[in-house]
């Protein structure tokens, strides 16, 4: 079990539910645009949001943003410790900074002291693309061992100044390297882990990489919070994160749709049926499993774990509930309506 940190009111680690994060794509000094995007992210299911703080104008915006949002705000800072101090004073809930990159030790101490005074955790965000030169020289390439050694270097610096309110990420754009790095880290420490595959790409491939990397680690019991990284509207990251958590069996926000791939037994036009059910389920909040299966031979049995479902016949279908048929020979054009009547009865 990892240690627990508090990011604002959201616990991370120590057995708390895996929290969904995303990052704004707005310019942070554009307070209105940033707040609007955070509200959209929150409505989509984001629980912790991060903003980039590249300069003092962005740091000065943090207080104004905080006043207008309710989810915890993480500031992402590279190199400049003064920006971290400004953001901490303005009420940031967590700082992502790598202490080894901010210069002299008195600067590290200043950041550690400021965060400790306000009970603000620090995320050490190791990234394969910005690994220290010495580690690249030592290992010859970006590899899991180098990412983990980098993380421990930053941890030691914070520990030196009596700061241990830490979480760690070890991101790489390679799924196997990312997965191995997190596995190594979880064997060697109990710091809460922020999962992510960095620069994962557009949703087409990025969702697959994230589902593999993040989902694979979650299935192994590793990971306390996550961010899916996509070249897309950040709300898509949140939707993907929710689906990964659902597929990993860690959350069920609303219904879960299972549907069969169809095969030579299928005698009904199943694909539009499944798409229609998926679309109409978007307004259902019950944590139920709904099955859309191509035939009655295997359908109800294969979907017996479902609360309710459709099994296709020849131009008609059956509605079943917990594997038992409740409506027979329903014409195809009435099947979805009949299914949703059954869902309402659940
Ligand atoms: S449920 Fe029936 S139609 Fe669908 S894949 Fe299985 S056997 Fe084929």
Walkthrough of the structure:
A hairpin with a 3-residue loop joins strand 13 (308-312) and strand 14 (316-321). The chain has two domains: 5-247, Dihydropteroate synthase-like (TIM Barrel), CATH 3.20.20.20; 256-345, Sulfite Reductase Hemoprotein, domain 1, CATH 3.30.413.10. The protein has twelve helices and 15 strands. It is of the alpha/beta class. Helices cover 43% and strands 20% of the residues. It has an eight-stranded parallel sheet. The protein has helices spanning 31-44, 56-67, 81-90, 105-117, 133-139, 144-160, 175-188, 203-219, 234-247, 270-281, 299-302, 332-345; strands at residues 5-7, 10-12, 19-23, 48-52, 73-76, 94-96, 122-127, 166-171, 194-195, 225-227, 256-259, 289-293, 308-312, 316-321, 324-331. The protein is elongated, with a radius of gyration of 24 Å. The longest helix has 17 residues, at 144-160. Bound molecules: iron/sulfur cluster (SF4). Iron/sulfur cluster is lined by residues 260-263, 265-266, 293-295, 297-299, 302.
Furnish the topology, listing elements before pairings:
Blueprint (H helix, E strand, L loop, with lengths): L4 E3 L2 E3 L6 E5 L7 H14 L3 E5 L3 H12 L5 E4 L4 H10 L3 E3 L8 H13 L4 E6 L5 H7 L4 H17 L5 E6 L3 H14 L5 E2 L7 H17 L5 E3 L6 H14 L8 E4 L10 H12 L7 E5 L5 H4 L5 E5 L3 E6 L2 E8 H14 L1
Parallel strand pairs: 3-4, 3-10, 4-5, 5-6, 6-7, 7-8, 9-10, 11-12, 12-13
Antiparallel strand pairs: 1-2, 13-14, 14-15
Bound molecules: iron/sulfur cluster (SF4).
